[in-house]
Write a structure and sequence with these properties.
mainly alpha; Cytochrome Bc1 Complex, Chain D, domain 2; 2 domains; 9 helices
């Protein structure tokens, strides 16, 4: 259908018929989007909360904990458990102090989750014994009769692949996780002879234990 020369062309029609105008608009749009994505990286450290004591701080996972995190992801635990306690009174009463952004600074990918078929695990570290976690993974209903969680008995007999741990650390170091060469050199020995059950229990036991919270301190400043 021919365009009536007496009708005023809309901006969309102009960009569709003028390739250079379209290129300029795309360049402007991409530039703005790039600034929005890249600029926050220049002040990212300032968004981390101030901790309570000098000895407090978030460290990278140990070799065994790192392997446990990978088992956690592989088995899809994040689809039923969150690791993000919201700053609401009921959540604090049930789970503990609300989650801090700094606690996830070395998580790639982060495990905040979006669904709670089971409880939040952000503060599960130290809440139960290793033996409890072992039994819970082997036969969940034996410790929590009302649970719908499936059993994971194969983890107890699945040996970790110690040849991959150092490579995982090296990959994470490329995105800012401060693993040292000594960490990588000792990774294989640290997981040698360990099972996937040992690893996931080690991972669960460290969650929420890296910050010594001080009562009354506002960490949102």
């Amino acid at each position: 259908m021919a365009h009536n020369s007496n009708e005023k062309m809309s901006f969309q029609e102009k960009t569709e018929t003028n390739v250079w105008l379209l290129v300029i608009c795309l360049a402007l749009g991409l530039s703005v989007a790039g600034i929005v994505e890249i600029m926050p990286l220049s002040y990212l450290d300032s968004t981390y909360e101030t901790l309570t004591e000098e000895e407090d701080g978030i460290r990278p996972y140990t070799a065994l904990e790192l392997e446990g995190r990978d088992v956690y992801i592989r088995e899809g635990c994040y689809t039923c458990h969150s690791q993000m306690i919201r700053p609401f009174r009921d959540e604090k009463q049930r789970y503990g102090h609300y989650s801090l952004a700094v606690e996830s600074k070395y998580d790639h990918p982060f495990q905040w989750g979006s669904k709670r078929t089971g409880p939040d695990l952000a503060r599960v570290g130290g809440k139960y014994s290793d033996e409890w976690h072992y039994q819970h993974m082997m036969d969940p209903k034996s410790v929590v009769p009302e649970t719908v969680m499936p059993a994971y008995p194969w983890l107890a007999t699945a040996d970790l692949d110690h040849t991959m741990t150092a490579k995982k650390m090296a990959a994470l170091s490329m995105v800012g996780v401060p693993y040292t060469q000594a960490d990588m050199d000792g990774a294989a020995d640290a997981v040698q002879g360990k099972t996937e059950m040992d690893a996931i229990i080690a991972y669960l036991q460290v969650l929420g234990t890296m910050v010594n919270f001080q009562e009354g301190k506002d960490y949102r400043q």
